[in-house]
Amino acid sequence: MRAELTTVRAGALTTVQDAGRRGHAHLGVPRSGALDAQAMRLANRLAGNDADAAVLETTLTGCALRPDRAVTVVVGGAPCPVTVEGRPVAWGAPVHVPAGAVLDVGAVTAGVRSYVAVAGGIAVEPVLGSRSTDLLSGLGPAPLRDGDVLPVGPPPPPAPSVAAPWPGPAAELVLPVRIGPRSDWFTPAALRTFTSATYRVSPHSNRIGLRTEGPALQRASTGELPSEGMVLGAVQVPPDGRPVVFLHDHPTTGGYPVIAVVAEPALAAAAQAAVGTPVRFTLG
Q1: Range scoring the smallest mean pLDDT among 41-45, 169-173, 203-207, 221-225
Q2: Which is the most buried residue in 101, 111, 241, 243, by most CB within 10 A?
Q3: Alpha-carbon distance 194 to 215, whole Å?
Q4: What is the 3-state secondary structure (H, E, C) of 140-177?
């Protein structure tokens, strides 16, 4: 018999995530997947899972779960207090949770998103090869609600203990970009502003895009741009002139000009940038 997890407290936004749905953009299906893939893979490694096994991605306020059988759990990503039946346990390391005990993943003390890896992985049914929740398309399991029950896969063989440093959320988000493909839609002054000004993470950011607050970028062209394909990390500039960095649940097409594209390895840091974090775009 496999273990099941009952959701005691769903938190602000808790979703199932893995490596995402690659190769379906031509069908209008975003990649989705864990925003901080590095944290997901490290948590899975410590739990003894395959690197891309499905985990829970929490947002700001964590979640609470009760297994019906004993399980091993690793909570990583954004640092937060972790308790089992009210007793503090380790963050960022394997923890034994007895059957019927409540694992509580608390509110983050820094960053935005924590990752809960359970030995055996979250075993919801895959859709198009992935178990990830996609907020834009609605594919995959719905965000967790109180009372939801999640199946857990067969536990893997015991993993050797490893020492794993967890990088902390950055005080400033520095995003290396390649300019284009629609940089010619902006004035030279706007391009200079884009790569020299300091923006801040907007409270309207989500899994679809990291929105920014700061100086508006002025267009050289005020015409209409036909809808065209969008890639992960595209920096789109809507009519208000403030850059938006497309994250894993982004649409596959869009009609606003893309001034630049962020290098994918930098997006893990974007996943942990809290509201108000300074943001700089640099040529790289």
Answers
A1: 221-225
A2: 243
A3: 8
A4: CCCCCCCCCEEEECCCCCCCCCCCCCCCCCCCCEEEEE
One-letter amino acid at 119 equals: A
- Please state which of the ranges 25-34, 162-171, 207-216 shows the lowest mean pLDDT: 162-171
pTM of this prediction?
0.95
Write phi, then psi, for 208 (nearest 5 degrees). -80, -45
Counting beta carbons within 10 angstroms of the beta carbon of residue 156, is it exposed (0 to 12), middle (13 to 18) or buried (19 or more)?
middle
152, β-bridge pairs: 122
Per-residue pLDDT of 139-192, as tens digits, reads 999 999 999 999 999 999 876 666 667 888 889 999 999 999 999 999 999 999
